[in-house]
Amino acid sequence: MKPSMIKSLQSVIRRASSSSNSWRQLFIRPYSLESSPNCKFAVLGAAAGIGQTRALAMKLNPNYATGYSHLSRLMCTGAAPIWSSSSKEGLKMLVNAGPRAQKLVGIWVFGCSMWVFSMVVLGGVTRLTRSGLSMTDWKFTGSLPPLSEDQWLIEFGKYKQSPEYKRVNKGMSLEDFKFIYWMEYAHRMWGRGLGLVFAIPFSYFLRKRYITLRLGLRLSAIFALGAGQGLIGWWMVKSGLEEPVSEYVQPKVSPYRLAAHLTSAFVIYCGLLWTGLSVVMPEPPAVTKAWIHGAAKVQRLALPLSLLVGITAVSGAFVAGNDAGRAFNTFPKMGDTWIPDDIFSMEPFIRNFFENTSTVQLDHRILATASLLSITGMWWASKKWDLHPAVRSIISSTMGMAALQVTLGISTLLTYVPVSLGSAHQAGALTLLTLVILLNHTVRRPSSSMLKSLRSVATA
């Protein structure tokens, strides 16, 4: 870029910032550009989330838009600045009281979402170590663990009355019982700890009036779902404490209840993650109309793709509930055939999709493959679109994670579901959900104020 061009661009920016309220928050920060070492500026921040100068540069130098022949790509962020909810038309902020409050609330919500993530992983480990039925009663407020040998013997005596001990763990030692008891106890207490981590800061932020009514209602709904999650968990465990219908069937929790428990956890996590993103990034990154149009194309694919990934995750819950991962431990075939003969052997027909081991595993294989192919297709199609670098990076990360998740699933199947790989596969499902949520949030439509400012920049 020529020095005269730099001076012209800086002059336009100064005039815009001094004469128009829409550029009131414009500022310049140092930045080195690869193709022009002497050019060290990048323009960031603008009133409605437009913090870039690409539109201005395009007016000054048409070559910038067509091929970047005189300047390498200007690296700028598209994150929206923080404003008060009353000062910007069309932009509804979730947090009052300025940047500090926004940062604090954002950190808290993200922290809660990560706590839920760890809860899901810990729950997977608890299930894989067959520890979930070790505590045969449940108290809403929780209780202290056994602290003496006599108390341990009392708890062990309760467990000996359960069908799992009689049919699976008969002869288990007290030390082995302590291990599975501590696993289940940790899972329950970790959930109650999350309640405190959520409720105490929530009360503080409400008292300080940091949280808007809209955000308060959303978080209250998530908290209610989290409180209900404990009841769902006990409802699930209770099904495993009942005598099986046949003496040849091992006691296990209902696959329907396990799927409800896991799906509820996924919903809580997704709700917290989306809310946290909305708090810290009230506007999507957008610089030009071309980037907005490209994001709209991605959004049309990302929404159904997210649904497919979610359904695949829920189908995985039924695989876990039916212990289907320990059957047909071959790939790509299921045993000696591509499709087992008994996939529709149950009556009524619909039961096969939720209780038939062969059908449940086949469904999960098909859905996982469809998810990987769909994400790869979106990645391939997006290569032709003009997208914000952040969007392109998220798409690539999503494709990579989908490939890793399928690889983890196959490895888990071939090795008869070891605890390490099974837990990693469950964590991978949540990580993939994280990326598709982030993608959907990043490509959502900007507010009317951002679009209005973009038009004003384009015509400046």
TrEMBL record:
A molecular function (GO) term: metal ion binding
Catalysed reaction equations from the record: Fe(II)-heme o + 2 A + H2O = Fe(II)-heme a + 2 AH2
Membrane topology: Multi-pass membrane protein
Keyword Transmembrane helix: yes
Cofactor: heme b
Record keywords, A-Z: Heme biosynthesis, Iron, Membrane, Metal-binding, Oxidoreductase, Transmembrane, Transmembrane helix
HAMAP family: HemeA_synth_type2
Family annotation (PANTHER family): CYTOCHROME C OXIDASE ASSEMBLY PROTEIN COX15 (PTHR23289), CYTOCHROME C OXIDASE ASSEMBLY PROTEIN COX15 HOMOLOG (PTHR23289:SF2)
Protein name: Cytochrome c oxidase assembly protein COX15
Native organism taxonomy: Eukaryota, Viridiplantae, Streptophyta, Embryophyta, Tracheophyta
